[in-house]
Each structure stands twice: as structure tokens, then as C-alpha cells.
Amino acid sequence: MKGALIAVEGLDGSGKSTQIYLVKRWLELEGYKVFFTEWNSSVVVKSATRKGKKRQLLTPTTFSLIHCTDFADRYERQVLPLLRAGYIVLADRYAFTAFARDAVRGCDRQWVRNLYSFAAPADVTFYFDLPLEVALGRILAGRPKLKYHEAGMDLDLSPDPVESFRVFQGRIYEEYKRIIAEFHPVVIDATQSIEKQQEQVRQIIAERIDLAQYRWRILR
Amino acid sequence: MSPRQFYGTPPPGAAPASLGGKLIVIEGADGSGRSTQIAILNDWLERRGHATVQVGLRRSTLVSAELERAKQGNTLGRMTMSVFYATDFADQLDNIIIPALHAGFVVLADRYVYTLMARAIVRGCDRQWLESLYGIAVVPDIVFYLKAAPQQLVERNFQKKDCLDYWESGMDIGLSADMFESFIKYQRLIEREFSRMQKQYEFEVIDGNRPIRAISADLEKRIETVL
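Above: the input entities. Below: the C-alpha cells describing the complete assembly.
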């Protein structure tokens, strides 16, 4: 495989999407071949996911599998061909997100890891580490209307969406800790300024990935 | 009541110890007589006072319509297709099979995970990956494999519809540009996978090249031993 895969992970509110967006802009403006993909965005399974969530039809297993279908579709049709074509692929959430969320919903950890084993591990994964309270504060301050699954309401943690979200995110946070110990992603202190984090991220990418080979051959 | 066996780790919330009922699976290609036999069995079971429920491929509330649409377009990769079908299976497992067993029903499955595994393996998916994926499946009380010669399958398919099914002919994997030839080749590949799985999953192989009533009498006799 000639391409390079960079993934970002972290709690809702950790700032990972901002960081990966800035990585994308940096690489594009420097003239590299870049492709961006994000969690839960495949057109093919969108209607099933929406129906399942809206009508609350999902069980922990089908929740896991439908997200994996989405992942597999993006992986087979975009990520893998683009990696083979020599692109830098940027993923806003990758398999760790499934490992964390599915485990919190009660799926067997090994089963979920096996499920995603068809996908190449990312060349670099950044985990944006933010204390739970800070992450909660960012989300709850800005967007008080939480969606059912986003708040983990399907887990019956609390009838109050905000309280449910707190407990749910707390469990995701614990699960991420376990994942960090197992897979050793690059941990970025997400309490720092956006600029400082981006500087560290860019430096690590430049160190770990031979960027020169991803330049457009044809000048545009 | 001994706890229900699963092939791997049961899905969250399954409570294997409280699952009674019976799970009867009939496998076989399109045209092998599966649906006919399931209908006869259902009458037979209900006449004897058993409550029944039926499951089958692409019958989930969650994704059946989406899977049907995906089939029309031939746009999904093999992994995506596999996980999508697994979603369809898991939806019926969690919402029909497990609750029905819990309530003491006889569940009749018109195909089960074996067809899904055979199709995926023929398309190049990894066997161990599939075994882990379908570790969530309940081990049935009895699995019948209705085996019919490809030539007979062709005849029955033409009796039902006026053309062969694109997917049942394996046209997506390029075995032959000729649909008839592709159908025969594809069915042989699937049959070979079933032969491989036969021992591991303890299939009762049923000769499908016989009259309907002869087959159903055979099935009933064997089912009596597990009821």
C-alpha cells in the first residue's frame, strides 16, 4: 500500500475535527494529494441508520453492525482505493470510535476488534485528550439539545438527556483509556491552544510520513 | 433446561440460560424447495400445538429495504455486503429469534448464517473473520441442508421466474459472462462451501431431488427427535 492513513480520535468536544480540518488545509495548500472521510457518512446505509435511530430499533449488536457497514462502505469504495492510488487519507474517527462506543453498549471487545480487522490500521492516530469535565462543558454549553443516541439514552442511564450524556461520555472516556493502553496512539493535550496543538500534529506527521511522495505529479 | 449454545460470544442481553424453544434451520439454494418445505413444516408444527415464528434473509425491519435497493444497484463491496447482511441477521436475532426462544416458540429459519458465510467466502472474505462475526448466532437444534443438483435448481428457477437471478448466478464475481454457465459454476462453489461446513456445523443433508411429500416426511421424522 502506497498511501498514508491519518486518523483522529477523542471525545465529543475534544476539538479533533478542527484539528483534522487544519491538517487537511495545510496538506492541500502545500500541494499534497489528500482525501478526507468522516464517521457515519456513507450514502448507501444512511437511510437505514436514520430509520434505526429515529424509531429506536437498534440493539447494541445492530448499532455496532450498522456503523461497521457504513465504515466498510467508505473503506472499500474510498479509503482503500485512494490509499492504493497513493493518497494521504484523513479520517475523522476510525475504528477506535467503534471500539469505545460498542464496548460501552455491551458488545464483546474482542468481537468488535475482529469485526474491524479487515481495515488497515492507521499509520498515525492522534488522540485528543481532554479532561472529561472540560469536554462535557464544551458540548453542554454550546448545544443543549442532545440527540437520543448521542446522549446514550439507549443505555437507560438516566431519563434526563444531559445526565445520561455525562454518564455515557464518562464511560466512553474510560474505554478510550483502555484503547490508548492497548494501541498507543499519539496523545495530544487538547487543553492547549488550537495553534499549539496543530503545530505538534503537523510536526509529528512530517516526522512519521514521507510527505514528498504525496505531491501531485501533475501541476494544476 | 441446559443453557443455549452460541457459536461464539452471545450478543449483549441474550441470557442463554433462559432460552428454551427450538431453532430449526433449513438451508439450500433458491429452487431447492426450501420455502415449500417451511410452509408444510409450519402447518405440521401448528397442528401439533407448537407456536412458531419464521425468520429468513432480508426480512429485518431495520435494513431489508436498503439491502434490496443495494442488490438492484450492485454498488456495494464484499465486506460492506457481508456486514450489511450481518446487520439484517442480527436484527432478527435480537428482535425475533432470541425473544421467541425465550417464550418457548419453535423458530423456523429459512436459511441462516451458513448461506451468508458461504456467499462471503466465495467472494473472498476471510473464514475466521466470518466465524467471529457470526459468533453471535444461536446454535440451532437441527440444521437441514436441502441439496439439489444444479440442473434441477435451474429448472425450478425458470418455473418460478422467467430468468435466473443475478445474485444467485454469482454474476457479480465474473465467473462467466454467460448467465447460465455462471449460475452452474456459482452454485457448485456454494455447494462446495456447504460440504466444507457440513461436519463443523452438523448439517443433516437432505436429498432435494425427490417429491415434496417424501422430503417433508423425512424432515418431520428427524424433527421429532429434537422436539
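Note for the figure: The helical segments of chain B are 34-47, 64-73, 78-102, 113-122, 127-133, 150-160, 179-200, 212-224.
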